Amino acid sequence: MTIVRNRWLEIVTVAIIGVSLFRSMTVVADVTQGDVQRIMYVHVPSAWLAFLAFMVTMVGSAAWLRTKDQRWDRLAASSAEIGVVFTGLAIVAGMIWAKPVWGQFWTWEPRLVTTALLFFIYLGYLALRRAVIDPVQRARRAAIMGIVAAVQIPIVYYSVNWWRSLHQPSSARSIDTPLRITLLLGVVAFTFAYAVLLRRRLELARLEEELDAKRFEQSQSVAGADITAPSLASHPHD
Amino acid sequence: MIDLVGAQVSNAWWYVTVAYTVILGGMAAFVGWLGFRLRRAHRELDQLS
Amino acid sequence: MTFWRQVYEVARKDLLVESRTAEVALMTAPFGAAALILIPLAIGTDAPLLSQLGPGLYWIVVLLFGMLVILRKSAVDGQAQRDLVRLLGIEPAAAFAGATAATSALVLFFEVALGPILIALYNPELRGWPWLFVILPLVAIGMGLLGTIASGVTTSIGTRTSLTPLLIVPLSLPLLMGATQALEGLRLGRGIVPWLILLFAVDLALAVSGVLAARPLEEAVT
Amino acid sequence: MNGHEIVYLDDVGLRLGNTIILREAKLSLGPGEKVGLLGPNGSGKTTLLRIIATLLQPTSGSGAVLGAEIGTQDVYEIRNRIVMVGHLPGLWPELTLGENTELVARLSGRSPEVAADALAQVGLARASERRADQSSKGMLRRAELARALILEPTLLLLDEAHAGLDAEAIGMVDTIANRVVAGGGAVMLVSHEPDRLNVHRSVQLVDGTLEMVS
Questions:
Q1: Per CB distance under 8 Å, which residues of D are interface residues toward A?
Q2: pTM of the model
Q3: Which three-class secondary structure state does DSSP give residue D69?
């Protein structure tokens, strides 16, 4: 068990998140948006974490197809689960932010639309994983879907971006240095959080596989052994 | 980066609180769920061996 | 036997089976048409509004109801049929391309069948309509590719009729964008070439993914 | 392995989920051999046939079929020399028996006339227009046997070789199998009636492994 060992990563992560939160609350308010803009310091890092997680899923998928090593499948699956959770969180936080700033919970901003679609794409990926029982079959199908999804995502993003640029040009706006540092700190903090979560999720995946192997060892059921002689009286030659 | 409808929202901190609660709460919930599944897996593994 | 001959024979087989059940022609297409009749009753029967919304609704119906074309019975071989095709030495990429060709042809049929109904009910502007000869096939091929890949990874899963659409719909967004914006561009007299390039790029990316995934996928589906 | 075997399995095992279907199965099938495969319901006979047919990859062990190592891409090259008649009909129910047979010929790059000829040989010339989903089990089996006549395989695998067949058709199974054997191929037949198998030797699947039957 590795719970006690390597605790330092957890400790560092909690510390960085704490510093990041403190800084998010105390940094000067944004000139135009005021205090509401502070939501950005958790919203953007959440979204970043989700993108990072899905990228790792793609890498894991491709690596599984190359090596057929189940460790890569565990990486892809674990990362996708974390990604889906944080995509959901980023979307909800984004909507809360949008309400006061844009006057409504949702706008058809390309990043928002793409993120929402990412949520469903990887929800489907996780659903596919749940639906396949055999680990190798599951890994193979999930890897293929993981790669097809990853290939499509940039196209999804560009098509929405393009569509949007025709309708409502988005106003680019640079942000001030202290604010940018705060945001960067948030991104770093969430990246650490990702590392911690991924490690734990990987441990869970490994344990579940071990558990499966143990159960298998104890049952050792051979397909044919499940069938016994019928207890119904037999009359073979009547 | 963002199109603004109205600047300087009056109850800004309320929105900030809700958003931070969602993100941090969601993170905590995920950590809790992960921990629960980890403990359960450990327990079941112990029971089997 | 050459690769393209295999593609042809697989597609021919799928279409022959489909012609017996006529699932797309007799069930899916009327279903889509019925939906186009129902929508105005829900959103209002104001003629200018319908004329404006028509093309968008058409593509939504094509994409969502097109799932039924993708999930149709002739698209799914049972294990015995899959075993047979594999033992006949059909290259998995050829089987993929053949199945895609058949599905794309049926989606195209579905699109064409819904067209007159849309025109009759919604009276959309038809400026630049000859471009539809390019747009409709590009969307049909994209859906055929996406459908065949997604059907592939969900083969023999009990919940495949629900799972496959969940996998396809979010990924089909570029097809929807390309199709709707190309029509919008035609209506406004703008250039539509970028949108056609987008559709083409989607088709190409999916075709390459599908062909490369064909062998690994075949081994996954036992 | 001496390189001449048609089928060679060394300690092949298969695990699907938590069920062991095969373990340490050893099998060698040389040219001209006709071997019976016995075993109770659910013992994995069909699965073993699918592994031999290169359709299913074992989870452990190694082997080769027609010179192609199983689990490698080489199997794509030799598959068209294998015919397997499974326990479920490999026919499209919406197509007629004639169309199904013709499909086999077309998909394997042969002319449709070969298919009609084969259908006549299995006694289905007059049933050619009948849809597969309106045919009896015996007719479906005959239509599947026509596949072996069209493709002239080196390796013939028959699952439930005699199920649903009348006396005439059973004789036909023997004829087709003997033809493959005479051509230097190998045949493996699954049956629950060992007396009717008419084979050189038999192996039996017990508890996931293969045993010789004297």
A1: 15-21, 23, 39-44, 47, 59, 205-208
A2: 0.87
A3: strand
